Description:
Blueprint: E1 11-20, H1 22-35, E2 52-64, E3 95-107, E4 110-118, H2 120-132, E5 144-148, H3 159-165, E6 169-179
Antiparallel strand pairs: 1-2, 1-6, 3-4, 3-6, 4-5
Amino acid sequence: MLLSNTNQKSIKGIYLAVDYHPNADFILNKIAKELGIVPDNGSGEDKEYKYHTTIIYSKFKQPLKQNDDPKNLVNFQTKNGSTIFKKSKPKISVPVKIIGFGFFEDTKNGRNFHVQVSSPFLNHEFDRAVKFGLPTDFPKYNPHITIKNNVPKDFTVPKEILNKYKGTILYTNDEYIEELD
């Protein structure tokens, strides 16, 4: 749905990400189970977020309106042509390789445990969004899939788990774009 001049709301920012195919969910849940943790993300009614990889979290300095946006930032399109105003098909499924495991220390949700991933598609989409002019607080892109927040400081990943899953290919389910609240 496109907004008309008389009915425009302010847009605070754009969130661009990919979510994962159910087969990838199965693998990510298996990793969590082998590590003895209950994932925060994934499929199921008890999960707030599905497994995903953020491409860009772009918060505007000032809210923008669609027709009052000199750089046209609110009309950024995904690879398949979706915007925050309209969704396009078909879905995009791309391979994403597990390259390791990592932690973000001292986030607002405590110590974050994630799967580190690599994908030319994800890197290209991040670069494309930045070149388009979307602002980011994270100029160095670090693609990952959060498994669990607030893990203990002594939580580690055994080398045999790393070796077992490193190189595993996961497939995305789709690239999506949303308006930030």
